[in-house]
Each structure stands twice: as C-alpha cells, then as structure tokens.
Predict the 3D structure of the following.
Amino acid sequence: GAVVSQHPSWVICKSGTSVKIECRSLDFQATTMFWYRQFPKQSLMLMATSNEGSKATYEQGVEKDKFLINHASLTLSTLTVTSAHPEDSSFYICSAKPGGAFYEQYFGPGTRLTVT
Amino acid sequence: GIQVEQSPPDLILQEGANSTLRCNFSDSVNNLQWFHQNPWGQLINLFYIPSGTKQNGRLSATTVATERYSLLYISSSQTTDSGVYFCAVGFISGTYKYIFGTGTRLKVLA
C-alpha cells in the first residue's frame, strides 16, 4: 500500500523557537496533503489542506502566520510551527492522497511536539 | 460544515463479544474510511468504504450513503482490539476536505 512518512516522530523545543515537520509520500505523488492536530483523548482536527504549488487553505480558527504550510513538490509538504508556545504541544498528523475526491487517504505516523 | 458523530463514545466488552460501532454524517460525502488508532497514535486503515459492504477477517463494515451512516462490526473481540476507532469522511466544500468523527473508545477485557 501507499506509504506516508513524517519527520521527526517526536520533538521537544523551547518556547519561542520554530519547529518544522516534514510529510512525504514515499511511493506516490500527492496532489493534496492535509495537516491535523490531536490533543489527548480528542479527535483529529483538520488544520489545513495544501495543494502542490499553491497556498494552503486553513480551517477557521487556525492561525496562518503561526502554522506555515508549504507544499513544494508532489511528494513533500512541511508544517512549520513558528514562535511555539506550550499550548502548541500536540500530536500532528499529515495525510496525502494520490488523486481526486474518490481516492483513499493515507496517513503518516504522526509527530509529537512538546514545547517547554 | 458536515458533522460526523460516532456512537457509542465509550464501549467496554468482554473478550469474545461482538460489537457495532456507528458513524453518522450530516450531508453527502465522497469518501469514508474507518481507522483504529493504536496506543502510539498511528492510524491503522481498516476500511475504505464510501458505499457498500466489506469484510476483513473479524471486521466488517457497511456504509449506506443515501442514509448517511456507516457501521463497523467487530466479532469475537480480542484484547488487541482495544483502542480508539475513528471514521473519517471526505467531501467537497469549496476545496476537498477530510474530517474525522468524534471517535469510539473501545476496551476489551480478558
């Protein structure tokens, strides 16, 4: 099956610094990638949708300037958490799909971010 | 936007019991998947099932798209089935979106 990787799998950073998380589709080209955030004992919340070569579409309530998303190629999307604060500590998961609306979604293993 | 509700929110079973998990969605969708989230947070894809019925071992799923619900059946449950089960739906609202349901937390007792 299709594989999506994320790097790093976990990261600890100091408050005020920025952290970049990479999401790669390893064996298919992803026209669309998605970023989610999950707090303990909650569901996954969609943060933004990115299409290769265009600006990301952010969900209501998600700060565009804080969560920078770049979908530079058909196999790579990055999420940068800028000026991180302890409340940004969360589990971040990306997903990708190879085609249009009727394609299955493939998920990365997630990145656990802790801001101290 | 579309709302995706799962029931029950919590379920405790004895090993060997059967269970049915439900996913209701408030509008038409293009895609639907069921996932099991393991203790490390990874999402295990169980079924891609925008419509119809599928079976894989002790698990099966049915989606009735016209009535806006999907069911996940777990038969002869095992302790390793414990965890959180999510349904997720894809739909077009301006752009294509893919959102998760509220989840069902399952605990299977030995």
Notes: Residues 86 and 115 of chain A are 5 Å apart (CA to CA). The first strand of chain A starts at residue 4 and ends at 7.
